RNA sequence: CGGGGUGUAGCGCAGCUUGGUUAGCGCGCUUGACUGGGGGUCAAGAGGUCGGGGGUUCGAAUCCCCCCACCCCGACCA
């Protein structure tokens, strides 16, 4: 997304750089990656000596990684501060009583790390800090005059992920920046929307400054509704998340949220293609296998999913069945919207069976067979022609399903059957924002997520204060997260080549690597000292490779660790009164630059 | 949680099918020599509870049982 990002110099002489020696650091590069590393960032961060695995989803951050994390953290802090937020630090250890109001330990379930202390009291390792900060605020803020406030921290988070994977991209312990804002109202000065917009801009600045190619996408709406949540996705083919974009309007959303333009609906009046014919299809795990067994392509099958409706909704139906084409996926959010209900859940298998649904073999006919059922038909599934479907009894599917013949009069009752959009958006779907434009898909790594919480937590925990009119009001909240360690990994996913990492200058652990061909040579030592002194004075961070290694080893390692600029001090260039200058992305051998010009050239390249 | 896979030296692997000297190889590491601008050569070394426990057997890295760890796919994921 493009916004008015201010171009910032990466370094300046206001703050000195640092100069470290390779021999005094711990940079254990390896020729080979561990066999269980498959993702580029995992392989390269390991091989280049940035990380080591301790356990599943648990990593050491070695000195180089620590410096990158600090650089990302510095950028985050600058932009958060500039956006009016203030840093604090909360504990990672959290007494379980804090969850009493929000019941989030139930939502998190096994993902929450639990531990008992010596007194037998239950504690959690915090997965995020809504409860902790709300608790803090309840004890510290008693007047509307103290709001708005936006507080943040950069801290280690813990989530017992069912499946940690891909190195730093999905960990059980990771570094996160989390911010929480507090307001008396949503609109206008000091309101939630203002803070949210400021965070949107700050995040855009942060990821731009980190040198990432990213997309801000609309994500699932919060309790307030509207476009209440955005995810910041690093564009990357290996990303876990699917995003969709409209090339004309710029609309972008994740697959859970993405709307589509109007798709053509069928009339539900077409004649049958043949007799209802049942086929024995036992023990087949998915629609693909069922299709194979029946000799039917998934796009000619109907997939019917059963949802239960919360009793509190007060609706005439307690079940919703949603029918989509076999090659499509039901979207729960769209089901809710089309049905006009706020809360649904995938049907409990036992309860659904008891009601008469043959789970795994459900057909749209259940709208008639099971009382209190609303049928939602996706537009793409509402056409005529041949359909195969579940046969409403265990181990059987059926061919030649026909809407009019097999569902009948219910189709004409809009209280029992609705046709609309209930599936996930796909590549090629019509854009919801620009007529004639089609959605394109991409993959992304979620590095940031901003969210309008509303009063979800303040209500649950009883955080309400008097406003100017002496009305007691629940405090309105927003929360804003950035995966700092994930951002580091995502950057490597985007910035590497066959030889190693290619850091963007703003988050590189050092800007310049000085490679001494003969580290014991006093002349090379002297020149390295002089150049590094000058560079440091300009705010540039320098690493000197002073190891007694062969040239080939040093060059290979230099490419691997990926610093933006390499200066080589060797006889060849020194005889010409210069040093060899090469940027990481430059594939050639570099150029000889007079010693007097080196600092200016580095500075220009780094800030360029 | 379901499916698949892997555990042998710091890293990458062979050996296991068909049990049998002292468990091998490459990289890395140590020492020495030669070398010296893209992971150099030669020589001599160090380094192992064969993931753990139990069992079968005269004898187990190898066969059997249980457990653990890690990876991949899926489910899940404020």
| Largest pleated sheet | 9 strands, mixed
Number of folding domains? 3
Alpha-carbon Rg, integer:
29 Å
Number of strands: 32
Q: What is the CATH domain class of the largest domain? A: Alpha Beta
Question: Can you offer a commentary on this structure?
Answer:
The protein is an alpha+beta fold and 608 residues long. The protein has three domains: 19-259 and 442-492, Bira Bifunctional Protein, Domain 2 (BirA Bifunctional Protein, domain 2), CATH 3.30.930; 277-420, YbaK/aminoacyl-tRNA synthetase-associated domain (YbaK protein, Alpha-Beta Complex); 510-607, 3-Layer(aba) Sandwich (Rossmann fold), CATH 3.40.50.800. It is 26% helix and 27% strand. The protein contains 17 helices and 32 strands. Strands 4, 8, 9, 10, 11, 12, 13, 22 and 25 form a nine-stranded mixed sheet that branches. The protein has a six-stranded mixed sheet with strand order 1-29-28-30-31-32, with helices on both faces. β12 and β13 form a beta hairpin. It is globular. It starts with 18 loop residues before the first strand and ends with a helix. The mean pLDDT is 86. The structure holds one RNA strand of 78 nucleotides.
């Amino acid at each position: 997304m493009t916004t008015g990002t201010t171009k910032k110099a990466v370094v300046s002489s206001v703050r000195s750089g640092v100069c470290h020696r390779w021999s005094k650091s711990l940079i254990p590069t390896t020729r080979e990656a561990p066999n269980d590393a498959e993702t580029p960032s995992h392989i390269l961060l390991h091989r280049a000596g940035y990380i080591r695995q301790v356990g599943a989803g648990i990593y050491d951050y070695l000195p180089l990684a620590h410096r990158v994390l600090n650089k990302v953290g510095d950028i985050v802090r600058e932009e958060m501060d500039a956006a009016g937020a203030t840093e604090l630090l909360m504990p990672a250890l959290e007494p379980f009583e804090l969850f009493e109001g929000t019941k989030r330990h139930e939502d998190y379930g096994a993902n929450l790390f639990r531990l008992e202390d010596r007194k037998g009291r239950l504690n959690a390792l915090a997965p995020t800090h809504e409860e902790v900060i709300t608790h803090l605020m309840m004890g510290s803020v008693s007047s509307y005059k103290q709001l708005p406030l936006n507080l943040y921290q950069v801290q280690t988070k813990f989530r017992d992920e069912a499946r940690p994977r891909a190195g730093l991209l999905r960990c059980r312990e990771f570094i996160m920046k989390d911010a929480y804002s507090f307001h008396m109202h949503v609109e206008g000065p000091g309101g939630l929307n203002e803070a949210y917009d400021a965070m949107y801009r700050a995040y855009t600045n942060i990821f731009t400054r980190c040198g990432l190619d990213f997309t801000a996408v609309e994500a699932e709406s919060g309790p307030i509704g509207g476009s209440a949540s955005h995810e910041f996705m690093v564009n990357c083919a290996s990303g876990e998340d699917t995003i969709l974009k409209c090339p004309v309007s710029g609309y972008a959303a994740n697959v859970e949220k993405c709307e589509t333009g109007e798709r053509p609906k069928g009339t539900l009046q077409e004649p049958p293609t043949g007799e209802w014919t049942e086929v024995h299809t036992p023990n087949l795990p998915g629609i693909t296998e069922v299709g194979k067994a029946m000799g039917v392509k998934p796009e000619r099958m109907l997939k019917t999913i059963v949802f239960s409706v919360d009793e509190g909704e007060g609706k005439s139906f307690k079940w919703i069945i949603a029918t989509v084409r076999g090659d499509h996926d039901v979207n729960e959010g769209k089901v809710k919207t089309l049905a006009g209900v706020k809360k649904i859940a995938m049907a409990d298998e036992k309860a659904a069976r008891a009601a008469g649904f043959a789970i795994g073999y459900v057909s749209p006919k259940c709208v008639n067979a099971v009382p209190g059922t609303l049928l939602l038909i996706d537009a793409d599934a509402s056409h005529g022609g041949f359909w195969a479907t579940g046969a409403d009894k265990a181990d059987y599917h059926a061919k030649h399903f026909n809407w009019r013949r097999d569902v009948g009069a219910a189709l004409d009752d809009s209280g029992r059957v609705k046709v609309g959009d209930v599936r996930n958006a796909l590549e090629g779907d019509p854009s919801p924002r620009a007529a004639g434009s089609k959605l394109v898909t991409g993959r992304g790594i979620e590095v940031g997520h901003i969210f309008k919480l509303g009063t979800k937590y303040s209500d649950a925990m009883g955080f309400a204060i008097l406003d100017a009119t002496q009305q007691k009001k629940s405090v309105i909240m927003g929360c804003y997260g950035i995966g700092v360690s994930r951002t580091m990994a995502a950057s490597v996913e985007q910035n590497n080549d066959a030889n190693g990492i290619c850091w963007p200058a703003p988050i590189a652990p050092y800007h310049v690597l000085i490679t001494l061909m003969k580290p014991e040579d006093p002349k090379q030592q002297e020149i390295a000292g002089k150049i590094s002194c000058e560079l440091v004075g300009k705010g540039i961070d320098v690493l000197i490779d002073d190891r007694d290694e062969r040239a080939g080893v040093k060059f290979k390692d230099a490419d691997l660790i990926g610093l933006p600029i390499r200066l080589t001090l060797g006889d060849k260039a020194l005889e010409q009164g210069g040093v060899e200058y090469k940027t990481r992305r430059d594939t050639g051998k570099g150029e000889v630059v007079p010693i007097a010009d080196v600092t200016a050239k580095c500075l220009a390249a780094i800030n360029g």
